[in-house]
Write a structure and sequence with these properties.
- The structure is a single chain.
- The chain has a single domain (25-94), classed as Gyrase A, domain 2 (2-Layer Sandwich), CATH 3.30.1360.20.
- Strand 1 (21-23) and strand 2 (26-32) form a beta hairpin.
- By secondary structure, the protein is α+β, with helices and mostly antiparallel strands.
- Helix 2 runs antiparallel to helix 3 (81-94).
- The longest helix has 18 residues, at 36-53.
- The chain contains 3 helices and 4 strands; from the N terminus they run αββαββα.
Length: 96
């Protein structure tokens, strides 16, 4: 089972993840795109990476906006290193 990170550990990790925040025991970020197609392509890229990591985000999409929340279910819905790793992966996909 993954161990939850402390608030200080999370804050330290977030310093290198632009735009991400820690709210309600989740890492969250909103991503904006030019259109629906680009938003959906981003979601599909996340799906492949999330499956590889065996760690699946909450994803909410409306038109050109994608909201992502990350927490680890087997750690009681808390933030773990798995969430940090996936957030960094998602950032790399967004910045391509």
């Amino acid at each position: 089972m993954a161990e939850p990170l402390s608030d200080d550990q999370i804050a330290d990790e977030l310093s290198s993840l632009s735009g991400w925040s820690h709210e309600n025991n989740k890492l969250t970020k909103e991503f904006g795109f030019d259109n629906f197609r680009d938003a959906m392509a981003f979601i599909n890229r996340i799906a492949f990476e999330a499956e590889e990591q065996v760690h699946h985000p909450e994803i909410f999409n409306v038109y050109n906006t994608v909201n992502i929340s990350l927490s680890t279910h087997d750690a009681g819905g808390k933030v773990t290193e798995k969430d940090i790793k996936l957030a960094k992966t998602i950032e790399s996909l967004f910045n391509k």
